[in-house]
Design goal:
The protein has 550 residues and is of the alpha+beta class. Helices cover 41% and strands 16% of the residues. It has 23 helices and 20 strands. The strands form seven sheets. A six-stranded mixed sheet has the order 12-11-15-16-18-17, with helices on one face. Strands 1-2-5-4 form a four-stranded mixed sheet.
Length: 550
């Protein structure tokens, strides 16, 4: 019994209090009860010295006095008051009193001086950070950060195309009954779509009814994350940092690839697309099968990367002012998501498929834009793949880290490889220069046939794009085609299935046969895109998605 108590004391699950001269420090005990209530609960043992385990057993009268005192402290010195369970345990020369504290349901709790305490290992610490306090309130359900308002943002700050895509997926059956499918849906305006969903409703009224707009007229955080044109203007830290390092240390001064902040700016769908492009251009493709031209496979299964990426974007803490961080090292990939596991979840829970979303409103709506099922099976599906992955739930740093280990053949060891890295960097610089020349050439070529195209927005998007699709195609048995930068952009854009109208709108082109042949049909023939309904190429609901060459 005593050995178990000592182990629990060292783990921070139990605090010992020595009964000395029949006097207990009421304030110190109150702080311990507050810390347990704000954390995951625990036990306070009276009659044992903390850390050393030295016993100072209580007499019968001392047990009675201690029991009454603990009850008074829990109701008068902890705000809001808590209920505790009190037991006695017989030991040599007397008794111990054990007060069991459950994790609180009304966080944050504080002492009678207004100070919030949490457990910090075997000790406790004060909490002054508003973000941490908000996280406590989120954890117990008294605050929903995804439903909070975004000051000064209006419906004009949302992207109509993304809203239309969301509504099309969410109300697919309703729109199908109204005949708004396929080309009819693509050609309809956003207000027409809204009116078809609910007669007399425009976009703003639909968003209000779906609770994306609060009763006071402000946009919710969820609306800005899902539909925002420039989400980071309002929430600068709701973004992701992607860096591919040379070596295995985050302290390395040399990196092979880095996504610029401006390229990541946008809503969750845009962030997802950008992150997946970062993975596909920096992870290796390994050849499967014996034939030289057999299809390659990404060294870390693409489906696992999808699940881990969506998990980090949707389940991250919205209270923590920190970005999602994605690092690629020579021996591993790390995905750092702000916020430890919520609601007392453990790593074993999520491996078993237990789902307790932190951002419930965002979670229930993001399913109509991002590729996940919303039933808590994402992690288990990812683990079904042949991968070596570890999870780290860091309560102290308030982050959840997924580490996927790469194959040994991808690891860089010894100084001899440093020379190889330098050569590779020089080679990449030469290749980049070559790509810039090719880009200029392709721009001239495109201008001859697409005089009706608005190039400004497209050129901005393409300026930072260096997805090496041609390299991926070398491992494929499809026809080798040199892509223009517009074609590269469309392939990346189709990481999520897109309709013909969406692709043409992305390009700023009219939906004409010559444009479809150049930017869709040719990419399907070359193996870069595939139809979602290949058995019926002319289907009204036909979409095109990127072929993930692995």
């Amino acid at each position: 019994m005593m050995d178990d108590i000592l182990k629990q004391i060292n783990a921070g699950e139990v605090s010992g209090v020595q009964f000395k001269e029949r006097i207990l420090d009421k304030y110190d005990i109150a702080c311990e009860l507050v810390a347990f209530s704000n954390s995951h609960g625990g036990k306070l043992v009276v009659g044992i010295k903390d850390k050393t385990g030295e016993i100072n057993a209580l007499s019968y009268s001392e047990v009675q006095e201690t029991t009454n005192l603990l009850s008074d402290i829990a109701s008068e010195n902890v705000v809001p008051s808590i209920l505790i369970k009190i037991d006695t345990v017989e030991v040599e020369d007397g008794n111990l009193v054990i007060a069991t504290v459950k994790e609180g349901l009304n966080k944050p709790y504080h002492d009678n001086k207004g100070i919030v305490w949490v457990k910090n290992g075997a000790d406790k610490r004060k909490v002054f950070d508003n973000a941490e306090l908000a996280e406590m309130m989120t954890d117990c359900g008294s605050f929903a950060p995804d439903e909070a308002g975004v000051r000064d943002a209006t419906v004009n700050d949302l992207d109509a195309t993304t809203i239309k895509q969301f509504l099309g997926n969410r109300f697919e059956r309703v729109l199908e009954k109204k005949g708004l499918t396929g080309d009819a849906f693509n050609e309809a305006s956003l207000d027409m779509i809204c009116s078809a969903i609910a007669k007399g409703h425009d976009c703003e009224k639909i968003l209000r009814n779906l609770r994306f707009i609060r009763p006071d007229g402000t946009l919710t955080v969820a609306a800005m994350l899902l539909f925002g044109k420039y989400t980071q203007r309002w929430m600068p830290m709701m973004t992701a940092k992607c860096i591919c390092f040379a070596g295995n240390s985050v302290g390395s001064k040399v990196f092979r690839d880095k996504v610029n902040d401006v390229d990541m700016e946008g809503n969750l769908l845009h962030q997802y697309d950008t992150i997946m492009d970062f993975f596909t251009r920096n992870l290796h493709n390994v050849q499967v099968g014996e034939e030289f031209n057999s299809m390659g496979k990404l060294e870390i299964p693409y489906t696992s990367l999808v699940e881990f990426t969506v998990n980090s974007l949707v389940h991250r803490s919205l209270n923590m002012k920190a970005p999602v961080r994605i690092f690629i090292f020579d021996n591993r990939v790390e995905i750092h998501s702000p916020g430890a596991l919520p609601n007392g979840l453990t790593i074993e829970d999520i491996k078993a498929g237990t789902s307790m979303p932190r951002n419930m409103f965002l979670f229930n709506n993001a399913i109509y834009l991002l590729p996940y099922t919303g039933v808590g099976s994402g992690i288990t599906r990812a683990l079904d793949e042949d991968i070596n992955v570890t999870f780290t739930n860091n309560d102290k740093a308030q982050e959840f880290v997924i580490t996927v280990w790469r194959g040994e053949s991808n690891q860089v060891e010894g100084e001899s490889n440093q020379v190889g890295n330098q050569v590779e960097q020089k080679s990449n610089e030469v290749e980049e220069g070559s790509n810039q020349v090719e880009e200029k050439s392709n721009q001239v070529q495109d201008s001859d046939t697409d005089l009706d195209t608005s190039e400004s927005d497209l050129d901005t998007r393409l300026r930072h794009s260096n997805t090496n699709l041609d390299t991926q195609l070398r491992h494929s048995d499809t026809k080798k085609v040199s892509l223009s930068n517009k074609q590269r952009d469309i392939v990346n854009f189709c990481s999520v299935p897109r309709t013909t109208a969406e692709i043409m709108e992305r390009l700023g082109l009219s939906n004409q046969t010559k444009n479809r042949e150049r930017y869709i049909t040719s990419l399907v023939a070359a193996g870069y895109l595939q139809m979602t309904n290949p058995d019926n190429p002319t289907a009204s609901n036909q979409k095109y998605k990127k072929v993930n060459i692995r």
